[in-house]
Amino acid sequence: MKIFLIEDDAAIFETISERFNSWDLDVIGPSDFQKIMDTFIEAKPHLVIIDIQLPAFDGFHWCREIRSVSKVPIIFLSSRDHPMDMVMAMQMGADDFIQKPFHMEVLLAKVQAILRRTYDYVDEQPEISRWNSATVDYAKGTVRLGNRTCDLTKNELFILRVLLQHVDQVVSRDELMRKLWDDERFVNDNTLSVNVNRLRVKLEEIGLENVIITKKGLGYIAVNVME
Fold first, then answer.
1. Which CATH class for the 2-119 domain?
2. Domain-by-domain residue ranges, the chain?
3. What is the mean pLDDT of each run of 10 residues along the chain (227 residues)?
4. CB contact burial 2-14 (16+ within 10 A = b; e otherwise)
5. Where is the OmpR/PhoB-type domain (predicted)?
6. Which CATH class is domain 126-222?
7. pTM, whole model, 2 decimals?
């Protein structure tokens, strides 16, 4: 697997590269921080790790640029600790946000979990399913109702897939987090809330309203309201 690490601190870059290489993860970085997209397009990485504070343009800018052409998993790795930084990252389509200083084993575990669910899990399940008269295309990461379509991030799609495996049944937040991040020790509860809320908004925009219900203290239910 190829990891594109957008980090201007040479010491951090080398430390991550050495640790990841020992797990057969090939780490590459930009040679020019003003031409990050050129490197991204040429390298075709399986996952991107990006800092917020970078030369020329910040990480949010490059996240937007990458998301405009790719659904590759993105992890923010930053010393900035304001809650809005995390919210902004999630809203832009990032898959996770890790603060510096960080534990290398936590970063590695999160990267491995995201790579597993992104590139392995899809092979175990049907590529297309029907729900509330909508077509959920797991390969394309889209939900289509009539002539309206919404694009989902990897996290949003994964959450929807888990909920649809238990239609009209409660799926607890704990179960969702275990499945999403593989290990509860590496879970940020706010991240799940942001992803579920963002998923709801996208579904509502194409006409799927009130299809993901919150059961206070229990979890979420994907309900059939049209079929």
1. alpha beta
2. 2-119, 126-222
3. 95 95 92 93 94 93 92 92 88 91 91 85 63 90 94 90 93 85 58 91 96 93 81
4. ebbbbbeeeebbe
5. 126-224
6. mainly alpha
7. 0.59
